[in-house]
Amino acid sequence: MDKRISHAAKRIGGYVVATIALVALWALLSKVIGSPALPMPGSAAKQFLNQLPELLPQAGISLLRVVAAMLIGTLLGLPLGLIIGRSKKADTICAPLLYLLYPIPKVVFLPVLMVLLGLGNAPKIVLIAVVIFFQTMMTARDSAQSIPEASIMSVRSLGASRRDIAFDVVLPASLPDVFTALRINTGTAIAILFLAESIAGTSGLGYYIVNAWGMIDYPSMFGGIIAMALMGVVLYEFVNMLEARLTRWRRA
Question: Closest Cα to residue 110, out of 137, 131, 132?
Fold first, then answer.
Protein backbone atom coordinates (compact mmCIF):
# COMPACT_ATOMS: atom_id res chain seq x y z
CA MET A 1 0.00 0.00 0.00
CA ASP A 2 2.84 2.41 0.90
CA LYS A 3 4.47 1.73 -2.47
CA ARG A 4 1.20 2.49 -4.27
CA ILE A 5 0.77 5.76 -2.36
CA SER A 6 4.37 6.71 -3.11
CA HIS A 7 3.93 5.89 -6.80
CA ALA A 8 0.69 7.91 -6.98
CA ALA A 9 2.36 10.85 -5.24
CA LYS A 10 5.23 10.77 -7.73
CA ARG A 11 2.80 10.74 -10.67
CA ILE A 12 0.82 13.67 -9.23
CA GLY A 13 4.05 15.53 -8.54
CA GLY A 14 5.15 14.90 -12.11
CA TYR A 15 1.89 16.32 -13.44
CA VAL A 16 2.25 19.40 -11.21
CA VAL A 17 5.81 20.08 -12.40
CA ALA A 18 4.86 19.49 -16.04
CA THR A 19 1.84 21.81 -15.71
CA ILE A 20 3.94 24.59 -14.18
CA ALA A 21 6.53 24.26 -16.96
CA LEU A 22 3.82 24.23 -19.65
CA VAL A 23 2.04 27.28 -18.21
CA ALA A 24 5.36 29.16 -17.95
CA LEU A 25 6.17 28.37 -21.60
CA TRP A 26 2.63 29.34 -22.63
CA ALA A 27 2.90 32.69 -20.81
CA LEU A 28 6.31 33.36 -22.39
CA LEU A 29 5.02 32.62 -25.90
CA SER A 30 1.96 34.77 -25.29
CA LYS A 31 4.18 37.68 -24.27
CA VAL A 32 6.53 37.23 -27.22
CA ILE A 33 3.83 36.77 -29.87
CA GLY A 34 1.57 39.46 -28.44
CA SER A 35 -1.52 38.26 -30.32
CA PRO A 36 -5.08 37.85 -28.97
CA ALA A 37 -5.06 34.44 -30.69
CA LEU A 38 -2.76 33.25 -27.88
CA PRO A 39 -4.18 34.68 -24.63
CA MET A 40 -2.38 34.48 -21.32
CA PRO A 41 -2.91 31.26 -19.34
CA GLY A 42 -4.76 33.11 -16.60
CA SER A 43 -7.30 34.49 -19.05
CA ALA A 44 -7.90 31.08 -20.60
CA ALA A 45 -8.17 29.40 -17.18
CA LYS A 46 -10.63 32.02 -15.98
CA GLN A 47 -12.77 31.53 -19.07
CA PHE A 48 -12.55 27.75 -18.60
CA LEU A 49 -13.94 28.07 -15.07
CA ASN A 50 -16.63 30.54 -16.14
CA GLN A 51 -17.75 28.29 -18.99
CA LEU A 52 -17.83 25.05 -16.95
CA PRO A 53 -21.65 24.85 -16.98
CA GLU A 54 -21.49 24.90 -20.78
CA LEU A 55 -18.29 22.87 -21.14
CA LEU A 56 -19.29 19.94 -18.94
CA PRO A 57 -22.20 18.73 -21.13
CA GLN A 58 -20.02 19.10 -24.25
CA ALA A 59 -17.19 17.20 -22.55
CA GLY A 60 -19.66 14.47 -21.54
CA ILE A 61 -20.78 14.05 -25.15
CA SER A 62 -17.18 13.88 -26.41
CA LEU A 63 -16.17 11.45 -23.65
CA LEU A 64 -19.09 9.17 -24.47
CA ARG A 65 -18.10 9.09 -28.14
CA VAL A 66 -14.43 8.34 -27.43
CA VAL A 67 -15.08 5.66 -24.81
CA ALA A 68 -17.71 3.91 -26.93
CA ALA A 69 -15.45 3.94 -29.99
CA MET A 70 -12.40 2.68 -28.06
CA LEU A 71 -14.43 -0.13 -26.51
CA ILE A 72 -15.85 -1.23 -29.85
CA GLY A 73 -12.52 -0.99 -31.68
CA THR A 74 -10.57 -2.79 -28.95
CA LEU A 75 -13.10 -5.57 -28.33
CA LEU A 76 -13.22 -6.34 -32.05
CA GLY A 77 -9.56 -5.80 -32.91
CA LEU A 78 -7.92 -7.60 -29.97
CA PRO A 79 -9.32 -11.14 -30.45
CA LEU A 80 -9.08 -10.93 -34.23
CA GLY A 81 -5.45 -9.81 -34.04
CA LEU A 82 -4.57 -12.63 -31.64
CA ILE A 83 -6.25 -15.20 -33.88
CA ILE A 84 -4.45 -13.96 -36.99
CA GLY A 85 -1.16 -13.82 -35.09
CA ARG A 86 -1.38 -17.44 -33.93
CA SER A 87 -2.84 -18.97 -37.09
CA LYS A 88 -0.57 -19.20 -40.13
CA LYS A 89 -3.52 -19.95 -42.39
CA ALA A 90 -5.49 -16.92 -41.13
CA ASP A 91 -2.40 -14.72 -41.41
CA THR A 92 -1.76 -15.84 -44.98
CA ILE A 93 -5.32 -14.91 -45.94
CA CYS A 94 -5.67 -11.69 -43.94
CA ALA A 95 -2.15 -10.18 -44.06
CA PRO A 96 -2.38 -8.85 -47.67
CA LEU A 97 -5.74 -7.26 -46.87
CA LEU A 98 -4.36 -5.66 -43.70
CA TYR A 99 -1.29 -4.32 -45.51
CA LEU A 100 -3.61 -2.78 -48.09
CA LEU A 101 -6.13 -1.22 -45.70
CA TYR A 102 -3.99 -0.23 -42.70
CA PRO A 103 -2.03 2.64 -44.32
CA ILE A 104 -5.22 4.31 -45.64
CA PRO A 105 -6.07 7.38 -43.50
CA LYS A 106 -9.49 6.37 -42.19
CA VAL A 107 -10.57 9.98 -41.71
CA VAL A 108 -11.15 10.26 -45.48
CA PHE A 109 -14.24 8.08 -44.96
CA LEU A 110 -15.92 10.69 -42.73
CA PRO A 111 -17.98 12.20 -45.62
CA VAL A 112 -19.17 8.70 -46.57
CA LEU A 113 -20.13 7.93 -42.97
CA MET A 114 -21.95 11.26 -42.72
CA VAL A 115 -24.03 10.39 -45.78
CA LEU A 116 -24.79 6.88 -44.52
CA LEU A 117 -25.23 7.55 -40.79
CA GLY A 118 -26.16 11.24 -40.54
CA LEU A 119 -24.62 13.93 -38.38
CA GLY A 120 -25.20 12.44 -34.93
CA ASN A 121 -23.00 10.26 -32.77
CA ALA A 122 -22.89 7.27 -35.11
CA PRO A 123 -20.44 8.49 -37.81
CA LYS A 124 -17.99 9.85 -35.23
CA ILE A 125 -18.05 6.68 -33.13
CA VAL A 126 -17.72 4.43 -36.18
CA LEU A 127 -14.82 6.46 -37.60
CA ILE A 128 -12.84 6.38 -34.34
CA ALA A 129 -13.71 2.71 -33.76
CA VAL A 130 -12.37 1.78 -37.21
CA VAL A 131 -9.04 3.50 -36.48
CA ILE A 132 -8.77 1.87 -33.04
CA PHE A 133 -9.75 -1.50 -34.54
CA PHE A 134 -6.92 -1.53 -37.07
CA GLN A 135 -4.28 -0.25 -34.66
CA THR A 136 -5.27 -2.73 -31.94
CA MET A 137 -5.52 -5.63 -34.37
CA MET A 138 -2.09 -4.98 -35.90
CA THR A 139 -0.47 -4.65 -32.45
CA ALA A 140 -2.14 -7.82 -31.14
CA ARG A 141 -1.18 -9.73 -34.29
CA ASP A 142 2.48 -8.74 -34.10
CA SER A 143 2.62 -9.41 -30.36
CA ALA A 144 1.03 -12.86 -30.74
CA GLN A 145 3.45 -13.76 -33.51
CA SER A 146 6.44 -12.82 -31.33
CA ILE A 147 5.58 -15.35 -28.59
CA PRO A 148 8.30 -18.05 -28.60
CA GLU A 149 7.04 -21.43 -29.77
CA ALA A 150 8.94 -23.00 -26.88
CA SER A 151 6.56 -21.29 -24.45
CA ILE A 152 3.56 -22.69 -26.29
CA MET A 153 5.02 -26.19 -26.51
CA SER A 154 5.99 -26.29 -22.84
CA VAL A 155 2.45 -25.47 -21.78
CA ARG A 156 0.97 -27.88 -24.32
CA SER A 157 3.20 -30.68 -23.02
CA LEU A 158 1.57 -30.24 -19.62
CA GLY A 159 -1.82 -31.01 -21.13
CA ALA A 160 -3.08 -27.49 -21.74
CA SER A 161 -5.98 -27.18 -24.17
CA ARG A 162 -6.18 -24.61 -26.97
CA ARG A 163 -8.40 -22.52 -24.75
CA ASP A 164 -5.86 -22.68 -21.91
CA ILE A 165 -3.07 -21.62 -24.28
CA ALA A 166 -5.16 -18.75 -25.60
CA PHE A 167 -6.18 -17.33 -22.20
CA ASP A 168 -3.18 -18.31 -20.07
CA VAL A 169 -0.29 -17.76 -22.51
CA VAL A 170 -1.17 -15.79 -25.64
CA LEU A 171 -3.44 -13.17 -24.09
CA PRO A 172 -1.24 -12.37 -21.04
CA ALA A 173 1.90 -12.22 -23.20
CA SER A 174 0.20 -9.79 -25.59
CA LEU A 175 -1.44 -7.50 -23.04
CA PRO A 176 1.58 -5.21 -22.40
CA ASP A 177 1.87 -4.41 -26.11
CA VAL A 178 -1.91 -3.98 -26.37
CA PHE A 179 -1.96 -1.49 -23.51
CA THR A 180 0.89 0.43 -25.11
CA ALA A 181 -1.25 0.60 -28.25
CA LEU A 182 -4.23 1.72 -26.17
CA ARG A 183 -2.24 4.63 -24.74
CA ILE A 184 -1.30 5.69 -28.26
CA ASN A 185 -4.88 5.13 -29.38
CA THR A 186 -6.13 7.54 -26.70
CA GLY A 187 -4.36 10.50 -28.32
CA THR A 188 -5.31 9.33 -31.82
CA ALA A 189 -8.96 8.94 -30.85
CA ILE A 190 -9.19 12.43 -29.37
CA ALA A 191 -7.48 13.95 -32.42
CA ILE A 192 -9.95 12.25 -34.76
CA LEU A 193 -12.83 13.20 -32.47
CA PHE A 194 -11.85 16.86 -32.70
CA LEU A 195 -11.70 16.67 -36.48
CA ALA A 196 -15.03 14.85 -36.75
CA GLU A 197 -16.83 17.17 -34.33
CA SER A 198 -15.44 20.31 -35.96
CA ILE A 199 -16.40 19.18 -39.48
CA ALA A 200 -19.64 17.30 -38.90
CA GLY A 201 -20.98 18.23 -35.51
CA THR A 202 -23.29 20.47 -33.55
CA SER A 203 -22.10 19.29 -30.15
CA GLY A 204 -18.96 18.15 -28.35
CA LEU A 205 -15.72 19.87 -27.44
CA GLY A 206 -14.47 19.93 -31.04
CA TYR A 207 -17.56 21.85 -32.11
CA TYR A 208 -17.24 24.14 -29.08
CA ILE A 209 -13.61 24.98 -29.88
CA VAL A 210 -14.21 25.69 -33.58
CA ASN A 211 -17.36 27.68 -32.81
CA ALA A 212 -15.43 29.87 -30.34
CA TRP A 213 -12.68 30.31 -32.94
CA GLY A 214 -15.26 31.40 -35.53
CA MET A 215 -16.59 33.98 -33.08
CA ILE A 216 -13.01 35.21 -32.41
CA ASP A 217 -13.49 34.30 -28.75
CA TYR A 218 -9.97 33.05 -28.16
CA PRO A 219 -10.16 32.69 -24.34
CA SER A 220 -13.23 30.43 -24.74
CA MET A 221 -11.44 28.53 -27.51
CA PHE A 222 -8.52 27.82 -25.19
CA GLY A 223 -10.97 26.94 -22.43
CA GLY A 224 -12.28 24.20 -24.72
CA ILE A 225 -8.73 23.11 -25.52
CA ILE A 226 -8.00 22.83 -21.79
CA ALA A 227 -11.14 20.70 -21.35
CA MET A 228 -10.12 18.40 -24.21
CA ALA A 229 -6.60 18.09 -22.80
CA LEU A 230 -7.98 17.16 -19.37
CA MET A 231 -10.23 14.56 -20.98
CA GLY A 232 -7.17 13.04 -22.65
CA VAL A 233 -5.26 12.91 -19.36
CA VAL A 234 -8.20 11.21 -17.62
CA LEU A 235 -8.46 8.57 -20.36
CA TYR A 236 -4.69 8.03 -20.36
CA GLU A 237 -4.61 7.51 -16.60
CA PHE A 238 -7.61 5.18 -16.78
CA VAL A 239 -5.72 3.00 -19.27
CA ASN A 240 -2.71 3.01 -16.91
CA MET A 241 -4.91 1.94 -13.98
CA LEU A 242 -6.51 -0.79 -16.07
CA GLU A 243 -3.09 -2.07 -17.14
CA ALA A 244 -1.86 -2.13 -13.54
CA ARG A 245 -4.90 -4.18 -12.53
CA LEU A 246 -4.86 -6.64 -15.44
CA THR A 247 -1.09 -7.19 -15.60
CA ARG A 248 -0.26 -7.61 -11.92
CA TRP A 249 1.97 -10.55 -12.83
CA ARG A 250 4.42 -8.08 -14.38
CA ARG A 251 4.98 -6.38 -11.03
CA ALA A 252 5.35 -9.77 -9.33
Answer: 131
